[in-house]
Amino acid sequence: VQLQASGGGLVQAGGSLTLSCAASAGRTFSRDVMGWFRQAPGKEREFVGFIIWSSGSTYFADSVKGRFTISRDKAKNTVALQMNSLKPEDTAVYYCAGAISCSRYGCASSRAYDFWGQGTLVTVSS
């Protein structure tokens, strides 16, 4: 299953942006968790946050806590990352990912995720 992330773009510091993620061709797939990761130029991919598909509970990295939210639409099989109060250091390629289970590696680890999107670039100007 290929995930498709969209919604990236250029935004000024302090602004907001919403990223969306959907399975290709409307396909459904089994997953416990949908996560977001990001990779800034010259840096390793880092965890942003995840949502537990069944309950809607969310968890975020400290760097984005209080500024970012994640929601899911079960009917549309999509997940969204709402980013507020953006900072230049939020500039990165953002990836959505799906995990069948996080029990082995934990949901903050990219190793837990089985399905990945192609990434969408977010650029925050100062």
Mean pLDDT across residues: 93
Q: What does the radius of gyration come to?
A: 13 Å
Q: What profile does the largest beta sheet have?
A: 7 strands, mixed
SSE pattern: EEEEEEEEEEE
Please bin the fraction of helical residues: under 10%
- Structural class estimated from helices and strands: mainly beta
Query: What percentage of amino acids are in beta strands?
Result: over 45%
Count of separate DSSP helical elements: 0
Spans of at least 5 consecutive residues whose pLDDT stays below 50 are none
Number of strands: 11
Measured distance between first and last alpha carbons: 37 Å
Shape: globular
Q: Which helices and strands occur, and which strands form pairs?
A:
Blueprint: E1 3-6, E2 9-12, E3 17-23, E4 33-39, E5 46-52, E6 58-60, E7 68-73, E8 78-83, E9 92-99, E10 115-116, E11 120-125
